[in-house]
Amino acid sequence: METEVVIASSPTDAGISCWDLHTGAEHLRYKSCASPSHGLTSVAGRFLASSQIRESKSSSSSGSILYWSWSKPQVEVRSFPAEPIKPLVSNSQGTYIAGGGVSGDIYFWEVATGKLLKKWHAHYRAVSCLVFNDDESLLISGAEDGSVRVWSLFLIFDDARREEMKHLFEYSFHEHSLRVTDVKTGYGGSNAIIVSASEDRTCKVWSLSKGKIVRNVVFPSMIDAISLDPGEHVFYAGGRDGKIYIAGLNSPVTSNSNYGLHIVGALSEHSKGVSCLASSADGFLLVSGSEDGMIRVWDTRTRNIIRVFRHTKGPVNNVLVIRQPKYINPRTSATSLASAARRQGLTLPPPLEKFANSPDESPYVKVLIGPQTLPNQPLFSPYISIQTMEAQIKELQKQGSSAAAEVDVERLKSEQLRSVQMIQQWKKMYENLHQFCVSELLEGSHTESPNG
Prior knowledge:
Layout (H helix, E strand, L loop, with lengths): L3 E6 L6 E5 L19 E4 L3 E9 L5 E8 L8 E3 L5 E6 L5 E6 L3 E6 L5 E6 L5 E6 L5 E6 L4 E5 H4 L2 H6 L4 E5 L6 E6 L7 E6 L3 E6 L4 E7 L4 E6 L5 E6 L3 E6 L14 E6 L5 E6 L5 E6 L3 E6 L4 E7 L7 E6 L10 H10 L24 E2 L13 E2 L1 H13 L4 H46 L4
Antiparallel strand pairs: 1-2, 1-27, 3-4, 4-5, 5-6, 7-8, 8-9, 9-10, 11-12, 12-13, 13-14, 15-16, 16-17, 17-18, 19-20, 20-21, 21-22, 23-24, 24-25, 25-26, 28-29
Pfam family, one: WD40
Keywords: Repeat, WD repeat
Protein name: Protein ROOT INITIATION DEFECTIVE 3
């Protein structure tokens, strides 16, 4: 059985809790976190990131994004975006982070360098939730204006096509009448389904291939959280009445349930509203967080509670289930973990940029993403940037001309040269491909013109 951990946070400054999902053993607690809903994410299991929104006396709010390594309870990296960020999500490889702003803008950063790659206006009101689809070609957003929008990252990063398009989104769904509280996506890439929840007491199932709603489920209570069963037979909906409703995705229109059409049952144990849900990788365990400060683990086959965690006295608004990171061990002290991390040379990436096109931007490509890391390799080995190489070269040159330093300098210079050469090769390949396409189009037009 794959070892998984439960991670939970709160909107109050209660930090982040972490437990072993299957044994219940508590891991290190991480300090100084007051996250909004959907504002906590694990960046490919390498480190934790969370958005923070704090209200000031002047009635305006300020925001930041914080990083924690697994080996230290204190915040290690602080970023200050251009506006407060609510939802925060990372892709599975940990190369990008996307954040939704209170203005309705979406921000897209490169993790290794902190560079703000793109920013676009996505919604008329604050973005409330973000999720990547399974092949990570699409980003789905929900907002306080009641809309759910689907964004193709290929279009977002294609500047030429962006200028030709009337709008950037692939789909814009407006059937919700109140704030969207959660969005989940199934498997199948651009043919997957999307399930959205709202304060209008409905969950709606959308088809990406058809671009329309295929099922509308009305609940007895407002729904704040949803979790989609891996087999996509049912989905779970956490209500403000403390119940977790089970809705069938393939159930008939008629239903004998007391709760309504398509609702096949409910789990009821929380004393207050269910604010967040997450499932284990196999789907046999469902984890629910509540405003009562409790986290419950349910067996989805028997619908019984098998474990209970207490996060804080305050509410729980984020819960994640992820594969256990390498540097988590309940029997190892924080000092030992930190020492092990230092020996491996693990460092967190730099803060995220506030604005795009910073004055100190290098003419070189800022990052090269290497091959996937193996379990016994250092966690941050993919983060190799040309700027880092240059800095290491300068540092080694200052330290003297020992044989070891000279070898390292030459190695780094060689790596830098190969990186620049690779960039030039990519540019040449693109130019050749572009020329080929233009030639084909011109020849095609000349061939068709006599018959025109």
